[in-house]
Known about the structure:
The chain is built from 24 helices and eight strands. The protein has helices at 7-10, 13-24, 36-41, 48-59, 66-73, 80-84, 91-105, 110-122, 128-137, 144-147, 176-179, 182-193, 209-213, 217-236, 252-259, 261-264, 272-281, 289-299, 316-321, 328-334, 356-359, 361-375, 387-394, 404-411, and strands spanning 166-170, 196-199, 246-249, 282-284, 309-312, 338-341, 381-384, 401-403. The strands form two sheets. The chain has a four-stranded parallel β-sheet. It has a four-stranded parallel β-sheet with strand order 6-5-7-8, sandwiched between helices. The termini are far apart.
Amino acid sequence: MQTTLAPEFANTPEGREAEAILRKCVHCGFCNATCPTYQLLGDELDGPRGRIYLMKQVLEGSTPTRATQLHLDRCLTCRNCETTCPSGVQYGHLVDIGRRIVDERVPRPAAERALRWTLKEGLPSPLFAPAMRLGQTVRGLLPASLRAKVPERSPAGHWPVRNHARKILLHANCVQPAMQPGINAATARVLDAAGIQTLLAPNEGCCGAVRFHMNDQDGGRAQLRALIDAWWPLVEGRDGQAGVEAIVSNVSGCGLMLKESAHVLRHDPAYADKAARMASLLRDLSEMLPELAPALLAAHPDGLGRGRSLTYHPPCTLQHGQRVRDTVETWLPRLGFALQRAASEAHLCCGSAGTYSVTQPELSQQLRDRKLGQLQGRGDVIVSSNIGCITHLQSGTATPVRHWIEVLDAALGGQPDL
């Protein structure tokens, strides 16, 4: 796509990055075929190709409007378009640039500003955990719309205390320990059963994803730097001990942000190398399965799942963002589970998409119900690997929705059966 940047963008790092991305686009429209919002709305400007045209116009000097902002807001950033695109257009990076520029030029209504401020300040806040506990205590009294955002609290269970030569650093996450503390504890127990010790960094903070994707990109980078600082002693090693062999994330949305930390901080002379090192160590929990499964099967040669019927929803941040596929689908069956995927449209977003279910509730619920229509009735439990997807899907179904690591942990006897 031929692009002539406006002078204000022509010599900036973001402008040059955006131009390089735009030049890869060949207008083919394959992306629209796999875009969830285009399939719902049928509007060219609510598909990737149309949004690319809108961002191109702004970068070439056109004045963005409220309509421009709304079309960009409706994008889930699911990155399905990226895995579809034959030209390798990095749409996710482009839309981060486009949204920031548009938001600087188009004022939002006061109610929107207040909601977005609450999300970016509240979710990573230390106050989120006590607020969530209070919400879970009075959950039955909450209005339905709010109750859907407050999952029933489940006990975490014990944290393993054995020492192992192999050690990983677990990304604890901001919201997950408050919403579903059992996921991190289950992760530690399964890794312990396979001879791997799980470490947590003291004073760990947010990875910056919420702020960054809500267009407080400077705030997101600051949180990412603080997280690197908290993790660095365990990465480098301390007290004569070697550093951890990997950093593991069991939240695919945060994992994507962390894997892209080298890109996010590439212009920061103090943190670029550290971010690249951290990104190289980062692994989604499912990427550990080829190592975990043989160790677990050695102790349980008859398998663990005993034919338990599961339906797997792979989050967009995992299959399209991180490009991690066929790990859970391959290894849980080898562990004895009967695993199925959606009847069709397994590649489409469930509508959670970070804060999207709050900022775009109508579209989000349509996508959730569409996804559940493909998932329900195929297994006893729906499993996924992102707290946002799990909570969002559970709000629309009586079928239990869990992280797959919880189901595996239950099979090992780590917690009551799900």
